[in-house]
Each structure stands twice: as structure tokens, then as C-alpha cells.
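We were asked to recover a plausible sequence for a given structure. The inputs and outputs are reproduced exactly as logged, with field labels preserved.

PROBLEM: sequence recovery
POSITIONS: 169
GIVEN STRUCTURE:
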């Protein structure tokens, strides 16, 4: 007799691990940093100092009573025209948007706030960022920062979790 249950559990674990590994390589990026999504912030300057990749999530934090987040086409972005938006991202003032394709994305806030700087353009790159350098074991501070942040730590956690689950089978 064949153990079909064991095979099913094995493939389920592999599928979950693959999903987690894919998700582990993306970042949650708070738009505007500490400022969040509000008027009179230079989002062009903010975005110019960051790299965005397919799989990353933009995290918009704002007062939903005054502002919103609309994905628009490039020409609407340039004119601050909210009339023909692609998608209303607004849900509750703590909203996320997944960059699913390697392309440019354009966001504005309606109600005239776009004219006060509430507009963001980002270009998602298709390839993952280069791997982090190997930790320098002589410097515990450097090693700790590599283990706490970045993609490498997430990949290591997923790998360890997958190994643990497979042992349980």
C-alpha cells in the first residue's frame, strides 16, 4: 500500500514553503517614511532614494476623512487629474498596494491634494536586489544588523521552518 497522505503532506509543505519564500523577498514600504501620505511632502524626492521591486508592498498611512489614494495613468499623474483613475486603493487610511509587475506606477490623492504634493511615482524592478554580503563574524554589530533586517534573514527563517515541518512528517 502507498502512503498517499505522506505525499500530500510533503507537497503541501513544499507549496507553503515556496509561497513563504516568495513573500519573504518582498518589503513593506511606508510611503513618505515618518511623514506618511499627506500634503506638502516631496514624494518624488522620497522615492528617488529607494528601490522598488516586484512583490514589494506600498503602505499608505493617512487620514481617510481628508485624503485618499488613487492609482492613475501617467498622464493623469502629470495633470493631477483624478477623473479617470485606474484603481481606488483607499480602504481605511492604513492601506497597502502590491507592486505585481515590473513597470511604473502612479498614485495621487484627489480633492486638489495632488496639487499640494500628494502624488507618487515609483518604478518596480523585475529582478530581486543583489544578495547581502556575508556577515563579518568579527563585528557582532554588523552581523546583528544583517540578521535583523533584509531579505537574507527572512529566507533563513523560511528555510529553518520548512526543515522543521518536514521533520514532523
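RECOVERED SEQUENCE:
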Amino acid at each position: 500500500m502507498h502512503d498517499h497522505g505522506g505525499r500530500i503532506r510533503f507537497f503541501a509543505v513544499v507549496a507553503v514553503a515556496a509561497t513563504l519564500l516568495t513573500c519573504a523577498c518582498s518589503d513593506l514600504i511606508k510611503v513618505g517614511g515618518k511623514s506618511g501620505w499627506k500634503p506638502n511632502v516631496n514624494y518624488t524626492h522620497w522615492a528617488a532614494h529607494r528601490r522598488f521591486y516586484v512583490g514589494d508592498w506600498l503602505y499608505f498611512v493617512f487620514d481617510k476623512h481628508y485624503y485618499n489614494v488613487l492609482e492613475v495613468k501617467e498622464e493623469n499623474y502629470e495633470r493631477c487629474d483624478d477623473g479617470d483613475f485606474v484603481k481606488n486603493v483607499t480602504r481605511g487610511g492604513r492601506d497597502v498596494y502590491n507592486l505585481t509587475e515590473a513597470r511604473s506606477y502612479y498614485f495621487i490623492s484627489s480633492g486638489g491634494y495632488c496639487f499640494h504634493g500628494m502624488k507618487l511615482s515609483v518604478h518596480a524592478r523585475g529582478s530581486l536586489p543583489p544578495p547581502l554580503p556575508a556577515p563579518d563574524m568579527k563585528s557582532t554589530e554588523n552581523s546583528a544588523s544583517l540578521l535583523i533586517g533584509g531579505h537574507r534573514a527572512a529566507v533563513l527563517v523560511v528555510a529553518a521552518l520548512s526543515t522543521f515541518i518536514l521533520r514532523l512528517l
